[in-house]
Structures are given as C-alpha cells and as structure tokens.
Write a structure and sequence with these properties.
This protein has 14 helices and 13 strands. The protein has helices at 75-84, 103-112, 130-141, 161-167, 181-213, 218-294, 300-309, 311-342, 355-365, 367-370, 395-416, 422-428, 456-461, 479-490, and strands at 65-71, 89-90, 93-100, 116-122, 148-153, 172-175, 351-353, 380-385, 391-393, 431-439, 442-449, 494-499, 505-512.
Length: 513
C-alpha cells in the first residue's frame, strides 16, 4: 500500500486536508522559450554572460507560469499534487506541472526544461538512491543551482533527514505523510520565494557581465558589480530570515487561533448553561424549603430517603460545585484569550498594543515548559511590571521575539541542570525574571535567567545568521537573528545581551514609545 493510499487510515492527513484523486489532465502550456536558463551544450555547464546575447537572459517577471517537476514512481502522488496545486498561484502566476516517473526520465526532462522553478522528488524509485543520484545530476552535471529541490520519501527512517540535508544541496526533506494542502502550499510558496530571489541575483549577474564587457570603465563596473552582489546576498539572507519568520508564525498562528476558537464554543455553551442550571436548582431548593416548612414531619419513608442522600449537605455542596465549574470555565476563557492575543496576525501598518498582554499570552503558551516535572521543580517567573504606555508596533512579531527569548532562557536553565539531582536543582532555584520600564522615550523589556550563561566569544556571535550552540536537531541558528531583525529593522529599536558563564543571561529590548 502506498504511503498516501486513500484507503490507508494512518496517512497522517487531517480531515480538513483530505486529498482527492484527480483524473489525468493535459499538461499546461510551457513557459516562453526566451524564459529559459541557458546551459552550455559542450560541457553541460551554465554559460557565462559573455557567451549569451542580451535577449537570452531570463526575465522571470515576464514568465507566465512557474514550472514544477514532480518525480515519483507512484501515479497517485502525481494526481494528488496536481489536484492540490490546480488553483495555486504565487505572485499572480500559476503552476505548470511536469511529470517524471523515474530518475532517468527526470534527467531527460531537466535537459529540456532549464527554467524549472521547483522539483518535488521521491527518494526511492527504480533504485533505493535514485532520487539522491538525480540531485547530484542536477547540481553537479547540469550545474543548476537555481532550481529548488524538495525531497519526499515514504520511508523516512531509511535516509536520516540530518544526514541527507548535510550531504546534498536540497532545500527541504519531508515525509510523504506531510503532503497536506496547507503544508504543501507552505513548502511551494517558500521555495518559489527563494527561487525568485536567486534567479534575480543570477540575472543581475549576467546583465552586469554584459555591461562590463562593453564598458570602457572596467574597473568602475567591477566595483559596481561587487557592491550589487554583496547587497543581493545580504538581501537574500534577509529574505530567508523573513520567510522563516513569516511561515513559522503563519503556521503557528493558524494552529493556535483554531484551538482558541474550538475552546470558545464549548466553554461559552457550558458557562451559559451553568447559570441556567444554577437558577433551576435554586428554584428546586426553594420548593424543598417550602415543603419542609409546610410539612415539617414527613412520613418515615421520605425522612429515610432525606437522611440517606444527606439532603442538607447536597444542597450546600451543589452550590460549591457550580461555582467551581464556573471558575474552570472562566479559566478556559482566559487561556483562549491568551492564545488569541499571541496568534494575532500583523497588518501592513503598526497598531497600538499593550506589551504586558503580549508577555502574558507568551507565558501562557510556554506554561507547560515551566511546570515541575520528574527531573526538576517548577521554573519560577518573577514579574516586575512597571507602568508603561501602549506602543505602535507589530504585535505578532513582538510576541515571536518574547517567545524566542523566553524559550532560550528555559533551554539555558535545563542545560545548567544537567547532572544535578532534584534536591540540588531545588536549592539552585531556577527562575526567569521579566522587568518592564520606561527610559526617556523608550520602552525597556528585560528578560533574565540564572542559567548556564555564555562566554564572551559566544556572546559576540549570538546574533549571527545560522550561529547556534545547540546540538543538531535542536537549534537552527535563526531565532536570535530573527529577533534582532524584528526589533531593529521593523521597530527601529535595539536588542542587547549581557551574560557571564555560570551567572545567567539578560536580554534587553529597547523600543521607541
């Protein structure tokens, strides 16, 4: 049975993302011929700008569609992908799907379609490593480093993800069971954004080479080219950070908002009915009280039943039970409100926001990590909230900064606890302190922990792109880079860090009020 067989009940596909097999359809029209990457026929390498005419340089903005190659030996995978991407558009352009059912067939396809934007590639086809061999063919033989490649496998354990990502030049590695509409759209959208950025960089490079060839001011043109490329590389890094940030917050926001919505409906129903039940019970108790006054000496059978059920105790305790249920409902509403606050989407313009609300909603999301467990007691949160004004900001992005910094603090505490007994950790007293205050025209947020701390060498690299001290699989090196970009680029503030080994770490956020 295929990993995505519609009869398989364990596909890992949500009900809302149900996949329906589509009938075979004709291939869509190809992109215009002048929208192709030019490859050297004599050695299968990309031609440099001095080998092509100006008219041959690819302009992706004029291309009518994005070409997407699906390589898989299972026909249903092609049907599913075609169905899900049938109405997909990105930056006003649709997808043209091209199919290949083996690695060999895929090699023939890419020789005729140099302007592929994305390849969704199965790992195991005619051979166990057919997909991986095709990756090497694309990158090393065809020398195409622009097309984005996403590996998909029905046997994720056979090829460990970290090993494949490290060894091969791919962009993502997913299990076929992740092939839902939302996740596929996110993967394709992210890949196309990076493809556009890379393509424009290569196109600009080609145009600059032609200009330099025909220019009398060679030295000036070379300097200009170097500056342009450096700017584009930096822009690409910023774009990648923004993509990671946007996709992460989009997926998390949709999940949390959905959970909050699902909580609200039953809680509202329960709270509303509890009040009605309370009124009904009060009427019944009043009626019983009247009976007791009018008939103070009931017959023996009734008196025995009253004694048996302990009527006086029941009447007293039922009020307490209803009150407890109402308190639980109120608590659930508070949790739902915190989830909604945290997951709120950002609009194009800044809006007025209460920083304390953002901190509280973030702490609610992380509450499960703060609770005591078998290895350590509860991590204490010390709040020193001072009176601060609301500010104009992007709330969703600020909440992501709070989430990253608080999660880093929790990670640091857990790392400092390694090798210690429960009693030793209790004496150490794990804590995170959050302080807010104003300073001239700035809002100051300080987040401190008494964890393991950082040495000066690590501290100097903490905000660098892709730098991480965490083991493989636990850290991406993007968290603090994204935080600094949000605070400094989006909010024109500052993000500072002070730390010493063994004395914890303090992050200071300054945002203009």
């Amino acid at each position: 049975m295929s990993a995505l067989d519609p009869n398989n009940q364990n596909n890992g596909i949500d009900d809302d993302d149900e996949l329906i097999f589509a009938p075979e359809t004709n291939e869509t029209e190809s992109s215009q011929e002048n929208d192709e990457l030019i490859f050297a026929p004599e050695d299968n390498k990309v031609r440099f700008a001095d080998e092509v005419n100006q008219s041959q340089i690819l302009d992706i903005d004029s291309a009518q569609k994005y070409k997407l190659l699906v390589v898989d030996d299972e026909p249903e995978i092609h049907d599913i992908t075609r169905l899900l991407l049938n109405d997909f558009t990105f930056e006003g352009k649709k997808i043209e799907l091209i199919n290949a059912f083996s690695g060999k067939e895929a090699e023939e396809v890419i020789q005729k379609n140099f302007d592929l934007a994305l390849i969704l590639l199965d790992v195991i086809m005619e051979t166990d490593d057919a997909g991986l061999n095709f990756v090497k063919y694309v990158r090393e033989v065809v020398n195409n480093h622009v097309v984005r490649i996403v590996l998909r496998t029905g046997q994720p354990g056979m090829f460990p993800e970290d090993t494949i990502v490290e060894k091969y030049d791919i962009d993502d590695f997913k299990s076929k069971t992740e092939l839902t509409k939302v996740r596929l759209f996110t993967t394709v959208r992210t890949a196309l954004r990076v493809y556009n950025a890379l393509h424009r960089m290569y196109t600009m490079n080609s145009k600059l080479e032609i200009e330099i060839q025909h220019s009398q001011e060679i030295e000036k043109a070379l300097k200009f080219k170097s500056m342009q490329l450096e700017n584009m590389i930096q822009e690409l890094k910023n774009t990648q950070l923004q993509l990671v940030q946007n996709e992460k917050m989009s997926a998390l926001g949709e999940l949390i908002a959905g959970v909050a919505h699902e909580i609200n409906n039953p809680v509202g129903f329960i709270n509303g009915n509890l009040q009605i039940m309370h009124n009904y019970l009060q009427d019944i108790f009043n009626l019983i009280e009247i009976y007791q006054k009018e008939y103070p000496n009931p017959i023996g059978k009734i008196q025995d039943e009253i004694d048996k059920i302990e009527l006086d105790y029941v009447c007293e305790d039922i009020h307490k039970l209803i009150y407890s249920m109402q308190e639980g409902g109120t608590r659930l509403q508070e949790i739902s409100k915190s989830l909604t606050t945290f997951s709120r989407g950002d609009v194009n313009n800044k809006i007025t926001y209460d920083i304390h609300q953002g901190l509280e909603s973030t702490l609610m999301i992380l509450k499960h990590r703060l609770k005591a467990n078998s290895g350590r007691p509860e991590i204490k949160i010390i709040k020193e909230y001072n009176q601060i004004p609301t500010i104009e900001c992007y709330p969703g992005q600020l909440n992501q900064v709070f989430m990253n910094l608080l999660a880093n603090g929790i990670d640091a505490l857990e790392e400092s606890n390694q090798g210690l007994s429960f009693q030793e950790i209790s004496q150490k007293n794990n804590l995170i302190k959050i302080r807010t205050e104003t300073n001239e025209n700035n809002i100051i947020i300080k987040i401190s922990d008494n964890g393991i701390g950082m040495c000066q060498e690590t501290l100097q690299q903490a905000f660098d792109y892709l730098f991480t001290t965490k083991p493989v699989g636990k850290g991406t090196g993007l968290g603090l880079s994204i935080c600094r970009q949000i605070i400094e680029d989006k909010h024109h503030g500052k993000l500072l860090c002070y730390s010493q080994i063994g004395k914890g770490c303090t992050f200071i956020i300054e945002i203009p009020s």
